[in-house]
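Help needed: design a sequence for this.
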């Protein structure tokens, strides 16, 4: 079947989904300042988080529905699907500390 974030989380993998668009200025700033940094990528790897990007070039219906399920109707949206826990929505303006705080809510993969 299709590998959705919900399916991956149900299989015990945390999944971070970046709902983004090329025309979205805040998305590009967040990507440059927080998401695409070595520090952030290392933190995702350490927490064994699966990274998924949902690009929304022309208000794609499937992504629109996924956003609606999260209670949102635009980008950026950053969602951390956590195994056995509720999905965590991060702020639209990402900071390193908000991202690290979100990752700290995951169960330790080594336990």
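Sure. Designed sequence:
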């Amino acid at each position: 079947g299709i590998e959705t974030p919900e399916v991956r989380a149900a299989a015990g993998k945390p999944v971070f989904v970046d709902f983004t668009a090329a025309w979205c200025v805040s998305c590009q700033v967040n990507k440059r300042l927080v998401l695409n940094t070595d520090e952030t990528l290392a933190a995702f790897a350490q927490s064994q988080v699966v990274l998924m990007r949902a690009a929304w070039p022309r208000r794609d219906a499937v992504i629109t529905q996924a956003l609606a399920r999260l209670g949102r109707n635009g980008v950026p949206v950053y969602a951390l699907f956590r195994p056995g826990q509720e999905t965590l929505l991060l702020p639209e303006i990402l900071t390193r500390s908000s991202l690290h705080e979100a990752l700290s809510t995951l169960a330790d993969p080594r336990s």
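The first helix runs from residue 5 to 10.
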